[in-house]
Write a structure and sequence with these properties.
Length: about 375
């Protein structure tokens, strides 16, 4: 394999298996899982069947002295791997990709893997991911522990990331003073959504806009999909009604109000309106701040939607041990490899089909040459 192959970043992972009767190296199993996923496999059995069909090809860049791992072996390994180690290795690899962390918006948002809910009533796995909006890659993830929520998981994820100089955007669940402190202490800026869970702060912001004068405004209009969408972003930098802002919110410099107006051409519902508020440590124009907020919204259709629709993550029934969390990391490795390859102008589905049909293209995705 090439020296700069993605797999080198996972060499430090500890193999959880005993050396007795171990036939396959950990990295061999990991690579087969990633290659099979790139080509459309979604279950452990499909990974085994893919490897059997492609055994001669796989042998050109993977040592297979003991043949191929079975689906049961793949299942046992991914159920036993330490997910925290796997996620740290993943983050280290993601940070090595071109432009993965270079003064861009990092959107942090959670997603529940609904198919991973067990029969005994145990909650499904919930993963918080960090999405680099301009690079279109996942730069880190962490699982929310069973007896906790995103408020405790987000600081763990921030500590894993290299975010200096970036802009961190988080939905209302993450609008906490400790999280704002963590972002500033790590050398980044924040844009945090404010909703009813921060009731006093929301009322203070609404008062600022009720009594504010000469507020800078930027308006953006989109036409398409049978509708006209108008976004009006207004920003206040001189606060009069936010109490103890310096004590509560580190480096709070501006508040943001974004009004969304949707007008439909061919629908009984002619008009929809929504208003959202944010706090930020930035000192920027309304145009720049609107662009940052819109970048955060992209995490839904550029990450979560793709994981559900293109990779069928929500249909996954991997429930044993750490399998669901580790499989989520495998999916994000595959997604990053597909996003990072830009010579083929196709969507994720088209690239996965091409990888399954064209061995040379698959090697190009993996950045690997035949031995």
């Amino acid at each position: 394999m090439k020296k700069d192959s993605f797999l080198q970043y996972f060499d430090q992972m500890v193999d959880p298996r005993s050396h007795v009767n171990k036939l396959h190296e950990l990295n061999t199993i990991l690579l087969i899982a990633v290659v099979a996923t790139l080509c459309g496999a979604e279950t452990w059995k499909q990974m085994e069947e893919f490897a059997i069909a492609k055994e001669k090809f796989l042998e050109t860049f993977i040592p297979l002295p003991n043949g191929l791992p079975s689906d049961d072996t793949i299942n046992r390994v991914f159920s036993a791997i330490d997910p925290t180690q796997f996620e740290i290795c993943f983050t280290n690899w993601a940070s090595s990709l071109p432009d993965s962390f270079k003064s861009q918006v990092i959107a942090i948002d959670g997603k529940t893997v609904r198919g991973a809910k067990s029969k005994d009533g145990k909650s499904p796995v919930h993963i918080v991911s960090a999405w680099a909006s301009q690079s279109n890659i996942v730069v880190g993830q962490v699982k929310v522990s069973d007896k906790s929520n995103e408020i405790t998981a987000i600081p763990e994820l921030l500590d894993m990331l290299f975010i200096e100089g970036d802009i961190i955007t988080i939905d209302a669940m993450g609008t906490q003073t400790a999280i704002a402190d963590k972002i500033i202490d790590n050398g980044a800026d924040y844009i945090l959504s404010v909703k009813e869970n921060q009731k006093n702060l929301l009322e203070e912001i609404q008062d600022e806009y009720l009594f504010g004068k000469n507020i800078p405004v930027f308006e953006h209009i989109d036409f398409g999909h049978g509708r006209i969408e108008t976004r009006i972003c207004s920003v206040i930098s001189d606060f009069k009604f936010i109490d103890n802002k310096d004590e509560k919110w580190k480096n709070l410099n501006q508040i943001i109000k974004i009004e969304n107006i949707r007008e439909f051409k061919n629908s009984d519902k002619k008009r929809e309106t929504a208003t959202q508020y944010y706090i930020t440590s930035l000192n920027e124009t309304p145009e720049k701040l609107l662009d940052c907020v819109r970048s955060h919204w992209g995490v839904e259709n550029k990450l979560h939607w793709i994981l559900d629709v293109q990779f069928n993550e929500d249909q996954s029934r991997k429930r044993k041990g750490n399998a669901a969390e580790n499989y989520s990391t495998v999916l994000k490795i595959a997604l990053n490899l597909l996003k990072n390859e830009t010579t083929v102008k196709q969507g994720i589905k088209g690239k996965r089909l091409k990888a399954g049909w064209n061995d040379e293209y698959l090697l190009k995705l993996l950045n690997i040459k035949k031995v």
